[in-house]
């Protein structure tokens, strides 16, 4: 009888422990819904307002990525963005990061239209950097998967502009 209850107790402990482990794992993964696949190591803010607040407070530029789930160009850009180590590292360490699947009320974030994907930078003085553009004259703030070096240069430019202007 003793052996039987010890075995039952052990099995119960194992069940509880594995459930706990799963709960902890879930807990750890939960905040990453905000990444939406753009980079799970990056800390993402939830709203544009929160992004502005954090940018001002931390003196880091805010990077805003507008995208949509069913947009193939967004998906391709997301994959290239998430796989680029230099972008991921800069995004994690030097930027306040926001990815949005809806438009903001701030018209400054759509100077040439509300297309996706669109990446814009806002400096800590809360100025939208309309001067940091991509390669395409018809959609100034769009990037394609092959433009990652260009995006890296623009991220560096956003960081440089802070140091020179604030």
UniProtKB/TrEMBL annotation:
Signal peptide: 1-23
Keywords from the UniProt entry: Signal
Pfam families: Thioredoxin_7
Gene3D superfamilies: Glutaredoxin
GO terms of molecular function: dystroglycan binding
Domain of life where this protein originates: Eukaryota
GO cellular component: endoplasmic reticulum
Transmembrane segments: none
InterPro entries cross-referenced by the UniProt entry: AGR/TXD, Thioredoxin-like_sf
Family classification: Belongs to the AGR family.
Protein's name in the database: AGR3 protein
Origin species: Lanius ludovicianus
